[in-house]
C-alpha cells in the first residue's frame, strides 16, 4: 500500500490528519468480487474506459479504502514485526493508489459536473485514509521498530532504500509531531487540497467562457464567425486563439485590448487571487510546523541545492550572467517599434513583444513560419521519434487498433482492439527488442477539448516495475493532422521522455519508480530529449521528404531568435516562485503589486514585459508538485545539456550510449539518490559549463558542482 508524496502531488492533495478511528472491518476476500465489474480496481488488463463512471468510482474506491484500512490494521497488530508484514505489506499493495490514478486521469480527460461532484465526495475519504496511515502512532512505532532492526542489514539495497524513503515520507507528513501540531497540520492540508481544486476549476471555467469580440481588421481568418441573426462577419477570439493573435495584430490599441482581456483570466467570478494568497500563507505555516523557516526551504531540502537560499543564489547568478544579452535583445525590439511607429522614444509594452518578435522574424527570415512547419506533419514526427529512441534504447513501439468508448456508454469493442476514451486517442505498446517483453503501454491524446484539462502533460495510469508493465498517458495540444512547428516537436519529445522514464523503470519495488523520484531530477530525462530536435540528421528523420538546407538553417536561426529573453523569462518565474514561497503574504497587498515589489527588490530587468499571469499558473497553485521548485526545470536543463555532451561525443543515435543511459538513468527510478545516478552515467558530478556555452557565456573558472547537497 503506497501513499507517496508524489501521489499526493498528482492529486493536488496533502495528507489530512483525522482523529484515530476504530479500523474498518477487514473487507471481503478478493474472490468475493469480480474484478471485471470494478474497472478502477481491475489491474489485470487495460482500463475499461466505458465502465469508468463517477458512480463506479465511488463503489470501487470504497472497496479499496476498506482493504486499505484492513492492511493498516494488520501492520499495527503484527505480533512479531518483520519487513514482510510491515513495509512489505504497506508498499506491496497498490489497489487504492491505482484506483486514484485512474480516477485522476478520468477527471483530467473528462471534466464534467458529475466528476467534480464525485471528487468532492471521494477526496475527504482518501484524505482520511492518508491521515490514518501517516498519523497513526501505532503504525509509525511499528515501522520505526523494523527500520532500526538488525533485519534491515540483511535486505537488498532496493529494500533498504524503500525503508529509508518510507520513513522520510512519514516524517515529512508529520508523523513525529505532537498531537496538537498534527491536528493543525491536518487542517492546513485539507484546506490546501480544497483551495487547489478550486484554483484549477476557476481556470477551466474561466477559459471556457473567455470570448472577445474585435474588429474585422488584423486578425486571423480562423477567428471569423457570423454574428447571430444578421450573419455579418465579426471576429471572435477565444482563449485558444487570443494569444497568437497578439503576434499578427498591427494596431497597438487592439493588441493592448487583447492583452488586457487575457489578464482577466481567473478574475471576477473565477478570481484566483484570494486563493493564491491563502495557499501561500498555509504553505508557509505548514513548513514552519515541520521545522523549516519557509516553504521554499522545506521543498528544497531534498534537492541537490539543499535550501531555498542556495536555489535563489543559483537563479540570481544566472540572471546576472544573462542581463546584458537580454538588454540588447529588448533594445532591438524597442528600436524596431520606434522605426515602425516613427517614434524614437517608443516604449516596449507587454502587448508588443509577440508582435515585434514576429515582425523581426519576417524581416530576417527567408522562409515563413508555416512553410517550415509544413515539412513536419504530426504523424511523420511521431513515427520518426519512435524510430530514434527504438534505435537508442533497444525498444520497439507498436501501434494497436483503438476504438473510442466514452465513459458510461456501452460500446462494442472487437477483440484485438483497445478501448480509448476519445476518437483522437491512439494506443501503443512498447516492447524490449532483445526479449520481446512488454515494457509498457502508451496512450496519446491529441487536441484540445472543452472537457479536457488544458496544457501538455504526461501522467501514469498504472505504475510499472520489473513485474508489471506501466501504463502512461500523454496529452498534446496539436491535432493529428497538424503540421508541427519546432516548439511543438520539442514538446512531443519532452513528454515522450517522461513516458520512457516511467515505462523503462525495471526495479522490483514499484514504490521506487519514477512516481517517487526527486523533483530536481524528474525533468532531466524529458528536457534532454528536447536536445535531439536541433540536429540535422534527427530532423530529417522527422521530416516529410528531404529537409532543404535553407529550412534547417532557418530552424537554427530561429533557435537563437530572442533566445535569451525566453531563458530569462524562466529564471524570472523561478525567482518569483522562490520569493512567494519565502515571505509572509499580506492580504491587503494586491497580487500584481506584490509581484512588482519582488522584481524591483531583486533588480530584475524589464520585469514588466514578460511575467505570466499567476492566476492561471497551475504549476504553482493547482498542486504542490513544483511549488517553490520551479527552479528544477532550469537545474535539470543544466543537467541535460551536460549529459547530452556524451551523446554528441559518441553519436546521437549510438546504441551503446543509449543502452548506458537506459541502464543507469531510465531504468533506475528512485532506487538510488539522483546525484549517484547522474554520476553513474557521466562518471562525475554535473557541471554548468555546457549550458553556459550554449547561452553564449564562457565560464571564467573551471566548474565543479559545489552546490550539491545529498538528500
Automatic annotation (TrEMBL):
The keyword Hydrolase applies. Residues 1-18 form the signal peptide. Residues 69-181 form the Oligopeptidase A N-terminal domain. Keywords: Hydrolase, Metal-binding, Metalloprotease, Protease, Signal, Zinc. It comes from the Bacteria. GO terms for molecular function: metal ion binding; metalloendopeptidase activity. Its cofactor is Zn(2+). One of its GO terms (biological process) is proteolysis. Residues 249-696 form the Peptidase M3A/M3B catalytic domain. Binds 1 zinc ion. InterPro entries: MetalloPept_cat_dom_sf, Neurolysin/TOP_dom2, OpdA_N, Pept_M3A_M3B, Pept_M3A_M3B_dom. It holds the Pfam family Peptidase_M3. SUPFAM superfamilies: Metalloproteases ('zincins'), catalytic domain. Belongs to the peptidase M3 family. This is Peptidase family m3. The lineage of its organism: Bacteria, Pseudomonadati, Verrucomicrobiota, Verrucomicrobiia, Verrucomicrobiales.
Amino acid at each position: 500500500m503506497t501513499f507517496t508524496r508524489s501521489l499526493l502531488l498528482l492529486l493536488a492533495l496533502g495528507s489530512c490528519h483525522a482523529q484515530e478511528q476504530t479500523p474498518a472491518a477487514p473487507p471481503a476476500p478478493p474472490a468475493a468480487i469480480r474484478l471485471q465489474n470494478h474497472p478502477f480496481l481491475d489491474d489485470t488488463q487495460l482500463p475499461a474506459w466505458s465502465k469508468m463512471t463517477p458512480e463506479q468510482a465511488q463503489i470501487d474506491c470504497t472497496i479499496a479504502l476498506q482493504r486499505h484500512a484492513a492492511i493498516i490494521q494488520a501492520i499495527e497488530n503484527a505480533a512479531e514485526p518483520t519487513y514482510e508484514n510491515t513495509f512489505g505489506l504497506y508498499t506491496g499493495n497498490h489497489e487504492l493508489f491505482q484506483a486514484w490514478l485512474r480516477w485522476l486521469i478520468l477527471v483530467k480527460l473528462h471534466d464534467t459536473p458529475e466528476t467534480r461532484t464525485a471528487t468532492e465526495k471521494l477526496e475527504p475519504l482518501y484524505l482520511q485514509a492518508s491521515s490514518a496511515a501517516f498519523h497513526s502512532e501505532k503504525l509509525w512505532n511499528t515501522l520505526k521498530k523494523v527500520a532500526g532492526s538488525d533485519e534491515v542489514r540483511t535486505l537488498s539495497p532496493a529494500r533498504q532504500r524503500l525503508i529509508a524513503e518510507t520513513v522520510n515520507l512519514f516524517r515529512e507528513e508529520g508523523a513525529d509531531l505532537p498531537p496538537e501540531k498534527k491536528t493543525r497540520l491536518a487542517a492546513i492540508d485539507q484546506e490546501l487540497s480544497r483551495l487547489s481544486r478550486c484554483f484549477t476549476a476557476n481556470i477551466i471555467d474561466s477559459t471556457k467562457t473567455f470570448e472577445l469580440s474585435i474588429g474585422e481588421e488584423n486578425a486571423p481568418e480562423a477567428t471569423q464567425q457570423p454574428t447571430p441573426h444578421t450573419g455579418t462577419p465579426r471576429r471572435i477570439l477565444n482563449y485558444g486563439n487570443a494569444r497568437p493573435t497578439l503576434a499578427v495584430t498591427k494596431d497597438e490599441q487592439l493588441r493592448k485590448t487583447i492583452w488586457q482581456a487575457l489578464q482577466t483570466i481567473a478574475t471576477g467570478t473565477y478570481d484566483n487571487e484570494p486563493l493564491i494568497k491563502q495557499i501561500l500563507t498555509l504553505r508557509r505555516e505548514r513548513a514552519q510546523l515541520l521545522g523549516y523557516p519557509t516553504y521554499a526551504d522545506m521543498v528544497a531540502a531534498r534537492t541537490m541545492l539543499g535550501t531555498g537560499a542556495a536555489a535563489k543564489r543559483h537563479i540570481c547568478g544566472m540572471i546576472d550572467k544573462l542581463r546584458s544579452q537580454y538588454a540588447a535583445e529588448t533594445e532591438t525590439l524597442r528600436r524596431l517599434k520606434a522605426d515602425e511607429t516613427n517614434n524614437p522614444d517608443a516604449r516596449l509594452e507587454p502587448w508588443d513583444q509577440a508582435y515585434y518578435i514576429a515582425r523581426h522574424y519576417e524581416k530576417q527570415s527567408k522562409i515563413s513560419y508555416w512553410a517550415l512547419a509544413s515539412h513536419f506533419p504530426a504523424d511523420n514526427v511521431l513515427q520518426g521519434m519512435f524510430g530514434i529512441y527504438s534505435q537508442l534504447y533497444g525498444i520497439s513501439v507498436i501501434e494497436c487498433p483503438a476504438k473510442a468508448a466514452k465513459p458510461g456508454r456501452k460500446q462494442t469493442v472487437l477483440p484485438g482492439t483497445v478501448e480509448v476514451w476519445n476518437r483522437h486517442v491512439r494506443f501503443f505498446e512498447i516492447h524490449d527488442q532483445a526479449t520481446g517483453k512488454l515494457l509498457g503501454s502508451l496512450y496519446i491524446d491529441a487536441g484540445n477539448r472543452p472537457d479536457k484539462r488544458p496544457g501538455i502533460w504526461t501522467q501514469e495510469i498504472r505504475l510499472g516495475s520489473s513485474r508489471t508493465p506501466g501504463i502512461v498517458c500523454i496529452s498534446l495540444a496539436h491535432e493529428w493532422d497538424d503540421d508541427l512547428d519546432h516548439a511543438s516537436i520539442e514538446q512531443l519529445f519532452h513528454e515522450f521522455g517522461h513516458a520512457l522514464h516511467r515505462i523503462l523503470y525495471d526495479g522490483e519495488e514499484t514504490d521506487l519508480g519514477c512516481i517517487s523520484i526527486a523533483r530536481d531530477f524528474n525533468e532531466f530525462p524529458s528536457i534532454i530529449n528536447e536536445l535531439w530536435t536541433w540536429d540535422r540528421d534527427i530532423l530529417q528523420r522527422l521530416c516529410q521528404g528531404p529537409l532543404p538546407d535553407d529550412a534547417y538553417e532557418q530552424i537554427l536561426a530561429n533557435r537563437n531568435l530572442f533566445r535569451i529573453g525566453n531563458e530569462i523569462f524562466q529564471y524570472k518565474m523561478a525567482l518569483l516562485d522562490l520569493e512567494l514561497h519565502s515571505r509572509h503574504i499580506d492580504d491587503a497587498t494586491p497580487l500584481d503589486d506584490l509581484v512588482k515589489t519582488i522584481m524591483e527588490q531583486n533588480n530584475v530587468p524589464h520585469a514588466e514585459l514578460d511575467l505570466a499571469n499567476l492566476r492561471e499558473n497551475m504549476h504553482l497553485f493547482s498542486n504542490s508538485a513544483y511549488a517553490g521548485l520551479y527552479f528544477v526545470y532550469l537545474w535539470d536543463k543544466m543537467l541535460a545539456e551536460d549529459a547530452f555532451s556524451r551523446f554528441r561525443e559518441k553519436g546521437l543515435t549510438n546504441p551503446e550510449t543509449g543502452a548506458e543511459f537506459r541502464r543507469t538513468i531510465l531504468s533506475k527510478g528512485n532506487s538510488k539518490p539522483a546525484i549517484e545516478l547522474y554520476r553513474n552515467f557521466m562518471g562525475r558530478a554535473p557541471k554548468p559549463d555546457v549550458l553556459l556555452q550554449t547561452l553564449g557565456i564562457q565560464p571564467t573558472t573551471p566548474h565543479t558542482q559545489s552546490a550539491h547537497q545529498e538528500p
